[in-house]
Write a structure and sequence with these properties.
By secondary structure, this protein is mainly alpha-helical. The chain contains two helices and no strands. Helix 1 packs antiparallel against helix 2. The longest helix has 108 residues. The chain is rod-shaped and about 160 Å long. It comes from Chloropsis hardwickii. This is Centrosomal protein POC5. Belongs to the POC5 family. InterPro entries: POC5.
Length: 215
């Protein structure tokens, strides 16, 4: 009887040791999977952050480029207006000088020519102003289009980022559910092994009692 008890205890110890080792291996395996998923998630988040930074830098570069183009256009228009103004002033002075030195019979003709030149200069000035307004309107339109495009890109990146996060979250939940299922299976397996062990012990005890009674 003592030998049977020792054998049973040894058998029980071996089973419990095997179960413990199996449990430790299972936990280590799932810890490794969780660490790999976290590293993968961190890598994807870092890539998305780098893409966001690159887009911000690109948007900043576009803004600087548009601002510089605006300054150049304004400077060119200002210089053109100044030159046009100087031409108008010189033209008027020249016309007045001609009127003063021309003969009386050409006075009316000279005045008419001066008015014609003045109207021409005025029309050029109006044309320059209208062209400046059109270019300003076009620049605003281009800037607005660039801004809308940048906003669309940012929104698209945000949606992609949220979708990836949702996908990773679902994967994490599935992993947790799998771990919980494995724990339940382990508990059921341990309970089944305990019941089987107890049935074996009971059978051995009954057999031992039968042997003693027969003796």
């Amino acid at each position: 009887t003592h030998c049977i008890t020792v054998v049973l205890l040894t058998f029980q110890t071996n089973i419990l040791t095997e179960l413990k080792n199996w449990e430790l291996k299972l936990i280590q395996h799932h810890k490794l999977q969780m660490r790999q998923e976290k590293e993968k998630h961190a890598t994807q988040v870092k890539q998305l952050e780098n893409e966001m930074e690159n887009l911000k830098e690109l948007l900043h570069t576009y803004e600087i480029s548009i601002s510089r183009k605006d300054e150049v256009v304004i400077t060119n228009l200002t210089q053109a207006l100044e030159k046009q103004k100087e031409r108008v002033v010189l033209m008027r002075k020249f016309t007045l000088w001609r009127i003063q030195h021309v003969k009386a019979k050409k006075e009316e003709y000279a005045i008419r020519m001066a008015d014609k030149h003045f109207q021409t200069a005025l029309m050029k000035k109006v044309w320059a102003a209208w062209r400046s307004f059109s270019e300003e309107k076009w620049k605003n339109k281009v800037a607005r289009a660039c801004q809308l495009r940048a906003e669309d890109v940012c929104v698209q990146l945000t949606n992609d980022y949220e979708a990836k996060i949702a996908e990773l979250t679902a994967t994490l939940e599935q992993t947790r559910a799998e771990i919980l299922r494995l724990h339940c299976e382990r508990d059921q397996y341990e309970d089944t092994m305990k019941k089987a062990f107890m049935r074996g012990v009971c059978a051995l005890n009954l057999e031992a009692m039968t042997m003693f009674q027969s003796k």
